[in-house]
Design goal:
This protein has 451 residues and is an alpha/beta fold. It has 2 domains: 320 residues, Rossmann fold (3-Layer(aba) Sandwich); 106 residues, 2-Layer Sandwich (Dihydrodipicolinate Reductase, domain 2), CATH 3.30.360. Helices cover 41% and strands 17% of the residues. The protein contains 17 helices and 13 strands. The strands form 3 sheets. A 7-stranded parallel sheet has the order 5-4-1-6-7-8-13, sandwiched between helices. The chain starts with 10 loop residues before the first helix and ends with a helix. The relative contact order is 0.15.
Amino acid sequence: MMMKTSTKEDRENASSGASSRRSPSGRLGVLIPGMGAVASTFIAGVEAIRQGWGLPAGSLTQLGKVEGKGNGDSWRVSKSLPLTGLEDLVFGGWDIFDESMLETARRSRVLDPYEIDRLAPFLDQIRPMAGAFDRNFVKNLAGKHIIESSSLSDRVEQLRSDIRRFAEQNQCDRLVMVWCGSTEVHTPESAIHQSIETFEQAIAANDPAIAPSQLYLYASILERVPYVNGAPNPGVEFPCFQQLALRMQVPVAGSDFKTGQTFLKTVLAPAFKTRQLGVRGWYSTNILGNRDGEVLDDPGSFRSKEVSKAGVLNGILSATEYPELYADLSHVVRINYYPPRGDNKEGWDNIDLFGWLNYPMQLKVNFLCRDSILAAPLVLDLVLLMDLAARNRRAGLQSWLSYFFKSPAVPSVETVEHDLGIQWRSLAEELEGFRALSHGVSLSAEVALDA
């Protein structure tokens, strides 16, 4: 059955219908499927910054600079791009557990209790809407705060209604949706994902291959709300959603926030490549004890994460390009659920290198990080940059945001790039273009002036 797309009147408050404006105006609603540790840390952090005592470390949009073209001068992103101010952000979303953001923050134990108490009145006001859930896709969780209907069409319509109601109640001019939910069981692309029509037929037939994350993505695009996938669940990669995003003129991006261990891989691997050092093996393991770790303890969900994390090295250390150096590379990824560690993830890497005359060497990396602390600023950056893209009438996959993702989704005519340095240059170039547009100069004219 064909889903009715949002009309202009439906979207008056609920969508990014004001995307033709290059300067932000009004409130930007941030809708988050999966309001757990990452979401509560992100929301609490934004409020702490707004109150004047939080530091937005890790955020490109708040602290970052881009080197200018030609003259070598750098410019600050927050002052040079027409980004939405933090004071105009409002938060909502869905979760299968009926906890306020205050309760979630206290349970997750990411932030200091004293800091949570300072933010308590604000966090306590934010509660999730009932989530779309199917335990076949997240086997280690059993929430009860869920949309009760077994009909996929009904669930989509409920999500769309939630989007409109949130926008109206919070007087939002625009919206962005960011998936911060759990990693689902690996769901490869299939026949139902080849076109909008085949996917809609599968929705009507309650096809069991449709994961909850795909329902959120579908509803988001139908409501013309930009969508970001922060987990390895495939979705924005599928042809049906790429077609729909272009038809509805909605930007989408993903997948899987690049935060800790994989972030370091995209720094180290290019360094080995540029120095022509060989790599025989790269063994990576993680221990973490948050809800994400609990979910990934299931082999099906772990497979999604394994696919996302494992693809990075193949894209940088090419056995085709350098068979003498990387043809026999063994890349092993493990994740272990260890409850005492909580959100303080620890990543271990053992790298077996070889150099001149095949002599072996080793590099060991031990990264004791905080999962949600690393992810929160990425959520903020992606919210503000996707809103910027929507206001500049960008649509479809936003591959220039690959810098933020473990498994970047790009159009079929592009090659996936994992090298962090190359990703950064692509991102910086795009931001330079937005800067030129905000000053009323076309990018081609600016290049001519710099020359």
